[in-house]
Amino acid sequence: MNELPEEFELMSFFEVEPIKADKDSDVPFYYNILTYVIKSDLEKIEIIISPSYGDIEIFWEQNNILKFNWRFYDIETLKIEKRDNIECMKITFDSENMSDCFLWVKPSFKIIGGMNITH
Hints:
By secondary structure, the chain is mainly beta. The chain is built from one helix and nine strands.
C-alpha cells in the first residue's frame, strides 16, 4: 500500500485495538497483519489488513452465520474520510478492474464499490 492511515486512526475508525499476528513490539505496524473485530449482539465484523501485501479480507456474520467474505488484493491506498457526514474507509486499487470501494462500520456495516464491469 502506498498510503495507509496511522495506527491510531485505524483504531479510532474501528473503535477497537487490532489483534496483531506478530506480537513482537519491534515489528513495524506496516509489516504486521492486523485484525479488527467488531461485535454486537447480532453481528460480527472481522477486518484483516496486511499493509505490506496490500490485502484486506472482510468477514461479516449475522447470528453466527457467515453472510459475506471478501478479499481485496492490489490495494493502492486506504484513507479515512467522510461521505454523507459519516466516517468511512476509502479503498483504492492498483488495478483497472476495480473501482474505489467505501467501507462503513458505523452506524452499521456497509460496503459499496468493487469490480468494474466491462462488456
